[in-house]
Write the structure tokens for this entry.
Amino acid sequence: MPEKILRTEYSEEMQKSYLDYSMSVITARAVPDIRDGLKPVQRRLLYDMNDLHVHHDRKEMKSARITGDCMGRFHPHGDSSIYETMVVLSQDFKKSVPLVDGKGNFGSIEGDTAAAYRYTEAKLQKFTDEVFLKDIDKAVDFVPTYANTESEPVVLPVRIPNFLLNGSEGIAVGMTTSTPCHNLTELCDLCSAYVKDPDMSIDEMLEIMPGPDFPTGGIIANRSELKNIYESGSGKIRIRGRLEYVPSAKRGEKDKLMVTEIPYTMIGQGIGKFMQDTADLAEAKKLPEITDIGNASDASGISIFIELKKDSDIERIKNVLYKKTRLEDTFGVNMLAISEGRPEVMTLPAILSAWLRFQHEILERKYRVLLEKEEDRREIQEGLIAACNIIDLVIAVIRGARNRKDAENCLTKGDISGISFRDERFREDAEKLRFTERQAKAILEMQLYKLIGLEISQLEKEYRATMKAVREYRSVISSKEKREELILADLKDIREKYGYPRRTLIEDIAETVIEEAPVRSFECVFVMDRLGYCRLLEKQLYEKNREAVENENKYIIETANTGHILLFTDKGNMYQIKCSDVPLKKLKDKGVPVDNVSKYQASSEEIRFILCRESMQGLNLMFLTAGGLVKQVPSSEFETNNRQVAATKLEEGDTLVQIVPVAEIGANTAVIWTEGGWFLRFALDDVPVLKKGARGVRGIKLRDKDSCRGIAVVGQDSVVSFGKKEIKLNQLKTAIRGGSGTKQRST
């Protein structure tokens, strides 16, 4: 076959390929279908478990067996995603109603991972069997699998809005889905009310189902905003844990605050992070009343205790914990789902409308299948009853036929050419026979005992039951009211069997405001030794021991306890340290690593300059890089609340060498010197004042393999040591910035 080359625009091909990939991720991986509230991997796993007959009343099956079967037959995207899905569907702290019954270590609310799938077992929950998979062979369409060897359901015939019940989380390309869990009892009540009145308002809906119901309990603190979230399909829910004050019961015990319920967003590593944050608040003296914190949680629930000093201000402690830790958090809502083949952010009425429409579809489909079966049964029953009424003629035809084919032709077409009648009286009646092929087959296979009177009566009774079923099924298919009666009966049955009380309290609570006592400002000294340990010293203590402090420390900056220290590094970054975060120590006490009180990492960067932010008012900072670039930056550029900013822009491979504060430009000059001994003196006003995001201009022209070593503003007694020689800067000739400079000897 000759090769055919198609020429196309590269950008168009990339755009088309990326769109195809995006839609594949959105529709086939990350976003649930609004009809059953399941992502493809969840749907395939549940269907595979159903196909393997791992039902609630059967023995569990190894998770490895289920995972491998699902991957080989339905979901060829790796075993980890399938097993992780199984784990999540079994966790009662993540799903309102778990769909998988796991046996073994399936993880914990504190973030412990599940055991490997070779150690665990699983089966379907009774709820899943009855609500998700019942009548799956009758109610939904099937499509070929990826290998085109089997078929899988397009959607599961779920009888409740699972999209709301168990929620969803997923990250697609350019969009995310995040739907909170809801209470099954309230959801059934809401669906029943919606079936009766599809035009009900959001306010009426919220009277029945006031909001989300998280498996971890807790408190929703912004009830008034829920209506807008359900109307728009997106928003933010403020959730907080539940704190209970437990006073000491006897002597020797301490008062406690008990965390008995956590926000849904704290599941996993969030619990450990909360405990660490609380301990940090106590250590930083922001919650000095706390003496101990521990975790006594077990299978019965969350129990985190915080021991307090006597006569502590309980309300203040609660407010600080809610404000400063993840005990109060935000759950972002974006109810995105696949609706009619495309992603759409769904409002609450739209979700209920899609659910009800789907229920009508699966009921119609189910009853059409049932009707078809009953019609087939009716056809055979009518044939058998008619045959029993003319049994003598039927026997005569069968006895006179040479083979089965001749008998069938006579029964279906009245063809008597292959029949030899012993009694010619039957010939004329035989020519009138017109049974269907299915009836003829049933007559020929009918056993003789069926001719007993009681059996004939039973056959007639079954025929009447079949006709009743046919009429009933036809009425369901044709009548919307009949289908709604069945939907309501289903909802009532689910509510009675599986309903449970609400777990999450919904209130309107104002955002926590902490009135912090004003901090008394006093003068102090920030010191940092050569190992990077920093601390604050009282100024009087420093002045009394100035020589000892200066000998032991690399950096000494006079500041205040409310001030800020700025660190500039060789990579062009500036890090800001609040002095209030640095511990006030005694003379011989050890400080804390500067890494602990800032974002600076001593392992990857070197400090080039350090100063107090409050002392640099009105100054310019002159930057010099190893590549010879120089610039001045106003100090106002570094007045920020951010803990880390880019102080200058560096070219690839370049580093910051030095920063010099400039109080006044005037007629002053500056000198740059290099590792190779080249010195260049030029007017300070030749160095432009630029923004911190600029690279700068050339300060000196470097030779090959040479780099800048330092820069200084020339003063009366400015001296630079170079090798064994001291260079007096004010004796150098002034040249033009950007020149090569003059060579100085080192001896």
